[in-house]
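Extended Data, record Putative membrane protein
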Amino acid sequence: MIPEKPLFSYIPKESQNLRYLRFGALSDMFSPLKQNPSLRALASQTTRSTGATMLPFKLRFLSIIQLCIGFTLLLWMLLSPTLGKTYDDKKKLLLIESALGDTQGAAFKLANDKEKQILERNQILSLSLTSDEKETLTALKRALVERQEQRTLGTLFHETATAFFANPYTLLYVLFSITVPLMILLRKQAAAGALLFLPLTAALFAYDNLLFSPVKQKTEEERLFPEESDLKETFLEVMGGESTSFSLPLALDLWMIQKHLNVAPSSDPEIFSLQKEEANYRFLTLRALSQKNYLLSVKPVERMDKATLSLYFFWNVFFAVTCYRLIRKKSPVIQMDKTTVP
């Protein structure tokens, strides 16, 4: 039974002495714990009960890391379909407006002074476009603007739900990545058995991704960009043996002029500057025209490289094995759901 008398009332009267306050009061303050069995039993019970609820640091640390991974993947699955598509739409729209030289669109409003001059120059160069090219770019711009305006909460929810349930193995892994660490931190007895599901779902996802997911292919826009070998070949062809140092920006300009204007680069700096401007605009136009199939395309889950999949799988194996060993240790600190005091 706990005495009704306050603990501090046990300090003797001679504690008023300054020397006693310095050296003796602290030990005498806890003297009732030594003298009173009830107080001593209560303190011992509190200490053991607190220790029994504490998980090892390594187990808590690994569980929190896995929990962060699970919540990160969950947020990515929820936000990527909508935010990613919105970002892609705006990026394509800016590209098309730049090709058209649109001085009324978002590209001109977001541009700085130098970029505004380029857009105004593109407006003049756009007169060289054929009627079919101009109609295609205008139709693409109108379709992108309409899709942004028609995007409602219902369409956003539909896009998110479609992407969220597209791959069941990813969904299961996210589910177990959140529930299993929570079970460990809450000291549930089923946590040890549930650890098996993490490497199992990771293995199923890796197997499905390697066998059934398509290999990443270059888009039509990406195929327009040259390889480094092409740039070096063009540089050596034009410059000959006059220069031994390879300049990537100059090689790109030379390749642009030869590829898109079908003329030899001029040695006159002023003419070369005009050729460079016209070639860059033609390349920009081809990039904008390559977006014709963008509105109809659906981006699939692409095949991941083996190194990433291996890291993904072995992390889950390491997490499951390490946590299982820590949980199964015969220590009163780690016994799940058992906080009774002997």
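Summary. The chain has two domains: 7-52, 57-221+290-327.
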